[in-house]
Design a protein that fits this description.
- This protein has 379 residues and is α/β, with parallel strands linked by helices.
- It is 43% helix and 11% strand.
- The protein has 16 helices and eight strands.
- It has an eight-stranded parallel beta barrel, surrounded by five helices.
- Strand 7, helix 14 and strand 8 form a beta-alpha-beta unit.
């Protein structure tokens, strides 16, 4: 039966509105501000080994990352930077947990550079080296005070700043972690109701952790996970993970002949467990997609946005072509799933530079970037 012009226009308007509503929620929970914040986290990189995971001396901080690094990131069409910040930089470790206002100059400068180069910035509290004691009750009080100070200092800044409560919180009890999140969020919201908060999954923030998670008690929140599946490939040669120090030449996607050849030269028992798992799973793009499912189910069930705050491959011994295959598959999967992401990392063992060129020229710029990686992650 023919449709009248009025009815046709009405149906068309409804269709447009449905398309305009973000995939992660329904019209009933519309939040345009949060929609805009999600878009700011489309593609980015971690500025690691700068305000965390380093000596934290003025000399080191002033030389590790400079304004030109922010400009370079923007020039390759990234939208944000995630900046790990060690709480020890901003606050004393013992009671009464005195704030170190003199060190906020470094964070102030990072925010200024990000704003100047039109980049969003994630302030990621990132303790090191041990995170086990961070979750103790005294440590929660310390973080509560610190987040209150950070929020008070930046509450009047425009909304391209994100507060990430804690990197990879080492807590097996997801309910306990959720309560800690609510404590820290209340501390922030007392002085800052504007900026979006990022909440990581408990433990190592792996996708499987989302199967146990529930949303926290705040609507202006994005939930984050880290993706390094499978570590047998992404962390081969990593001397900080038991069993992976001697693992090398592992292919991605899984190739039986190449895997057997690599395995013949790896004899220690701890490594065999990692190799057994990789051989059993036979990692490829389909397996990576299955590993992401708990995150997608969480997003769909609770109508909340999600974000991949870290993904990458340790460069020491991973075959270069396989490393690109992995980056390409993960970045494509995240893009298809409409999930923003930040590569781990700008500098370090997972970095985006051509090591030979960067060493020879002693500089970081477009000429020393590893463009094969940059293009593999969709830039």
């Amino acid at each position: 039966m023919p449709v009248s012009r009025g009815k046709f226009i009405g149906v068309a308007v409804i269709a447009i509105l449905l398309v305009a509503v973000p995939f992660w929620r329904g019209p009933a929970v519309a939040n345009r501000l949060l929609d805009q914040q999600v878009q700011l986290l489309a593609k980015g990189v971690n500025f690691s080994h700068w305000l965390a995971q380093a000596s934290l001396t003025p000399e080191q901080i002033n030389s590790s990352i400079v304004e030109d690094d922010f400009a370079l990131i923007r020039s390759i069409k990234m939208t944000h930077v995630r900046v790990p910040v060690d709480p020890d930089l901003l606050q004393e470790k013992t009671e009464p947990y005195r704030i170190r206002p003199e060190n906020f100059q470094y964070l102030d400068r990072a925010l200024y550079w990000a704003d100047r180069h039109d980049l969003a910035i994630v302030i990621d509290l990132h303790p090191a080296p041990s995170q086990q004691d961070v979750i103790a009750s005294a440590a929660v009080s310390r973080l509560e005070k610190l987040w209150g100070e950070i929020a008070k200092r930046y509450s009047s800044r425009r909304g391209k700043i994100f507060y990430e409560l804690l990197n990879e919180p080492q807590l097996k009890d997801v309910a306990a972690w959720q309560e800690i999140c609510n404590v820290l969020i209340r501390s922030i919201r007392k002085v800052d109701r504007r900026h979006t908060i990022i909440v990581g999954a408990h433990g190592w923030s792996e996708p499987e952790s989302f199967a146990q998670m529930k949303p926290v008690g705040d609507g202006n929140v994005i939930y984050t996970f880290h993706f390094y599946e499978h570590k047998t490939f992404t962390h081969q040669g990593a001397d900080w993970i038991s069993g992976l120090e001697s693992v090398r030449d592992i292919p991605y996607p899984y190739d039986a002949a190449r895997f057997r050849f690599a395995r013949r030269s790896i004899s220690d028992a701890p490594a065999q467990k990692w190799l057994d798992w990789y051989e059993y799973q036979k990692y490829n793009s389909d397996k990576i997609a299955r590993d992401l499912q708990p995150v997608l189910k969480f997003r769909q069930q609770y109508r909340v946005p999600v974000y991949c705050g870290e993904f990458g491959v340790y460069k020491k011994v991973a075959p270069a072509a396989d490393r690109l295959n992995w980056h390409r598959d993960v970045a494509n999967l995240l893009s298809r799933s409409q999930i923003g992401y930040a590569l781990w990392e700008y500098r370090g063992g997972f970095d985006i530079f051509d090591d030979k060129l960067a060493t020879e020229l002693k500089q970081r710029n477009r000429d020393t970037l590893d463009w094969s990686v940059v293009r593999a992650i969709g830039l």
